[in-house]
Amino acid sequence: MEKKIVNIGYGKVNKVNIGKDLPLAFVGGPCAIETRDHALFMAEKIAKICSKLEIPWIYKSCYDKDCRSSPKSFHGVGIDEGLKILSEVRDSFGVPVVSDFSDPAWAKATGEVCDMVQVPAYLCRQTSILRAAAETKRPILLKKGQFMSPWNMKNSCKKIESFGGDQIILADRGTFFGYNMLINDMKNFPIMAETGYPVCFDATHSVQLPTSMGNISGGQREFVPSLVRSAVANGIDLLFMETHNDPKNALSDANTVLDIKYLENILYQAKKIHSLRLELEEELGPDNVHKNN
Amino acid sequence: MFTKIIDMKIKQVMIPPENFAQVSPSEFLKVALDKMNDSKLGIACVVENKLLKGIITDGDIRRKLLNVQKPFSAFFSDYVIDHAITNPTTCKEDETLRSAVELMEKKQIWDLPVINDDGQLVGLLHLHAAIKHLL
User: Fold this and answer.
1) Is the ipTM of this complex over 0.90?
2) Which residues, in sequence order, are bridge partners of residue B111?
3) What are phi and psi of A143, to 5 degrees?
4) Among A23, A172, A261, B129, which has the minimal tally of Cβ within 10 Å of its Cβ?
5) pTM of this structure
6) Going by C-beta distance under 8 Å and a sequence separation of 6 or more, which residues neighbour residue A12?
7) Which residue of A149, A292, A293 is in closest CB contact with B74?
8) Is A128 part of the contact surface with chain B (CB cutoff 8 Å)?
9) Over the stretch B35-87, which tens digit does the pLDDT of each residue have?
């Protein structure tokens, strides 16, 4: 399939174009919107880093965390408050914003504020969610379910297309490897790229150990840098990492979210590797090892 | 009598488009196989905006099964066009049945997609149907 470019951003924000031979883009922020002040604080920190490295970026944070392991875990600030905060982040920094939504009824309002809507991995094949995402007319960040094969994601793409959506980015956030464990299959990127849509690597959720701590998820964030290097070299167009100034006290995904003190280092490497990959492709052409066919 | 029959035009013998399997290039291979099953023919034509983009046949699938070394679920989810013959032998509807049968014999094939001057698919000539008219 012909490679497509996804254009993110409406109105007065810095537009981010993703795919083909365009520069690597970054999407990140705290997993959950905690408070207005914290959201703005994090946006300012990330904006400085991305501005310094000249990396196009999108602010990501969610208003409702519907897939937490425990009923006692922080569930989010809610859609009304959350979208108000995302709107303020957007206006203050001129950055496109994205949030996921886990109820079709929330899609319209989410799409009215957000430049991109995200479909959670656990819901990646739910027709009602995919229909609602397509109807927002915004680009869709579609996470591959941890239970899904990369080739079966074409079904979800076809569902979105059948509802009129044609701006999709496919993200890998790991695949279940037995219980409470994820693994990253680096073949997933070229396989999902066969759809023509840009592909994304969600580095911080990939190092999650789902519900491994009994009532919360554990994680091995020390592997984020090596996985990022591998994924970028493997041809991703968008890098997803959740980041926080105080991971230990983060209200969501405390065991995987990346301390912002590491963000610049990792993004710097990612940008360099991505540029090198594009240079090599320009010099040598696309991969041409023949397949058994 | 025999000569008269074999000099019939292909358009008098061909199967109309609604009676054989057609799929778009981005359709799953599995869907093409289902449609081939339904039509009881060993061929599906790959069509986009009425233009013939390729064909896929039982024989192609058999060869693929021996060569493609990946899970069936991945194979079935491949786009049809990735496994299609994109330069198939074709014929025109005003050509004679004789020429078509000779072509099928020469190429050792069972089916000939019938296209018009614009490359649009207008029918399918199946060897069984051709033989039926010759008997």
Assistant:
1) no
2) B126
3) -80, 135
4) A261
5) 0.91
6) A91, A94
7) A149
8) no
9) 999 999 999 999 999 999 999 999 999 999 999 888 999 999 999 999 999 99
